[in-house]
Amino acid sequence: MNLTTSKLAMEHRKRGSAFLAVVIFGIILTLCAVFAFRSTIYQRTMAERSQDYMAALAVAEAGAELAMAELNKPSSSTPAPFSSWAGTADKTRTELIRDNNNNVIGETAVQVSAVASGLPKVVATGYIPDKANARLSRTVQLSAKAETVPAPFGQYGMFSYQNISINGGTTIESYDSSKWDGYWPASLGNNAGVAAMGDISFNGNGYVHGNLQAGKNLNINGHLSVTGSKVSQTKPTAPPAMPRPDFSTEKPSSDNNNKIDLRDKNGNRITVAGQGSVTTNGSYDITFPAPGTYVINQLDLNGSGAIKVTGTGDVTIYIKNNLNANGGIGVNVTNGANVRIIANDINFNGKQGFNFTGKSNVDFVCKSINFNGSTQLGMPDNKAAIKFFIDNNLNFNGATTQNYGIYALPSNLQLFVGQNVNYNGSMNFVGCIYAPNANVNINGGSTFRGALVAGNIGFNGASQIYLDDTVTQPTGGSGAYVTSWLEKAPVRI
Fold first, then answer.
1. What's the confidence (pLDDT) of residue 444?
2. Per-residue pLDDT tens over the stretch 236-264
3. How far is it, in rounded angstroms, from Cα 112 to Cα 186?
């Protein structure tokens, strides 16, 4: 081998090494590029999955919000709650959820069960991209509770802030006035609730178709049959405080007395001078057109005339001194007007009747009220709710029938009393009394249907007491709220 040949061989070896280096370097670059590409694809896939994962939860929660929105709709709203949903007992709905640009995010499927129970359950599933082509779904489950407003008279049909004493052969039962059809067995039950912050004492024989709860002692002397529980040394839950209009703040600054229609026996209209006193005799009505505010010094109604309200709207009749109703007068309200009658004292003597041609509310606001003689206060057609707000005393003198009529509802006659309730004689009462500071004593031969809240309560003799279940039931409030929230395991499809 000569020198030239050796140099050529060396040159070839150098070229081969360079080529091999280039090939190896190219392979490394290719592998890096493939790895980078695979990494990018993986990261993109993970990002998409993460986006799907979050979007599915958002869509599921959107479905739950749809259900809560329906649960929070007032029942009187138009359209009615769940009117666009499928199902009867359980409500179902599917809906595409879109972003602000109207692009579809996913589809939700929602089911709401136990809607009428007040404890609804909501199950909402979010599908990405939609239910038919879902690649991922997430589901949330909510438990909710309907907002309720406590019954004005609390959860007990008979409640005393101090003590209850029942003597003689008294029977206490419950009944459901919403099912009342004039026949007792159709509505009677064993849900009567009798509770006192202090003692409950029974002397003699008696029956309680329900439960007794005393904050202090439960004293039973004689034979008392109780179908439910007997609890002592456990304070019951008191009813909510009842607002009473303040008589002193009810004085109007102006009046519409020029619209009062009062006529004499010949049909001639009598003008009410200023804010003077008015006296009617015979069968002549005094008419107050609605709407309007009327101010009178004193109103004496004699005979069979009536306070008559015509038209629609609100009417306030302010009587500076007393309202004296003598004989068979009444209050006649047409077209569903709402009426407030304000007086210093109100005296009812004789049979008082109320007649309504539309759904109305009539409030009496006064310092004291007296029912004298054989008084009947009745709303036999159940078209109105009448409330008495009494600052001082409520007095029943003589045989009294309140809210008479076989179909009379206790909730249509409510009396709120600031101080004392005095019963002298027997009575037949259908209504509700809230008198937390009063000593209420009802004597033998009486029948009571409704609800009673008082300071001290005493029943003497053979009385029949029927406590209305509907009066003590809470009513719907402003909607529903979530009590629990959980997510079920995600599902990749």
1. 66
2. 989 888 766 665 556 677 788 888 888 76
3. 33
Contact 101, 93 (CB under 8 A): no
The conformation of residue 283, written as its DSSP 8-state character, comes to T
Distances in whole angstroms, Cα of residue 217 to Cα of each of 154, 192, 207, 231, 493: 21, 19, 18, 9, 65
Nearest of 392, 395, 415 to residue 403 by alpha carbon: 415
Query: Residue 290 — φ and ψ, nearest 5°?
Result: -100, 145
> Given phi > 0 = left and psi -120 to 50 = alpha, else beta, which region is 350?
left
- Rounded to whole angstroms, the Cα distance separating 66 from 72 reads 10
Q: Which backbone phi and psi does 118 adopt, to 5 degrees? A: 85, -5
CB-based burial label for 339 (10 Å; 0-12, 13-18, 19+): buried
How far apart (Å, rounded) are the C-alpha atoms in residues 276 and 278?
Answer: 7
- CB contact at 8 A, 117 and 90: no
User: What is the torsional sign of CA 406, 409, 412, 418?
Assistant: positive
The model's confidence at residue 123, banded by pLDDT at 50, 70 and 90, is very high
Sequence-ordered list of residues with C-beta below 8 angstroms from that of 312, at least 6 positions apart, any chain: 290, 291, 335, 336, 337
Q: Which residue has the higher pLDDT, 139 or 396?
A: 139
E-only strand ranges, 336-474:
338-342, 345-356, 360-366, 368-378, 384-390, 394-397, 400-402, 413-417, 421-424, 427-442, 447-460, 464-468
Measured CA to CA in angstroms, residue 272 lies from 100, 307, 356, 489 at distances of 66, 15, 26, 78
**What tokens were used for 152?**
């004005």
- Dump the DSSP string for 356-368: ESS-EEEEEEESE
In this prediction, residues 99-113 reach a mean pLDDT of 92
Name the most confidently modeled range: 24-33, 294-303, 321-330.
Answer: 294-303
Residues 401, 402, 406, CA angle at the centre, nearest 5°?
85
Burial, 42: exposed, middle or buried (Cβ in 10 Å; 0-12, 13-18, 19+)? exposed
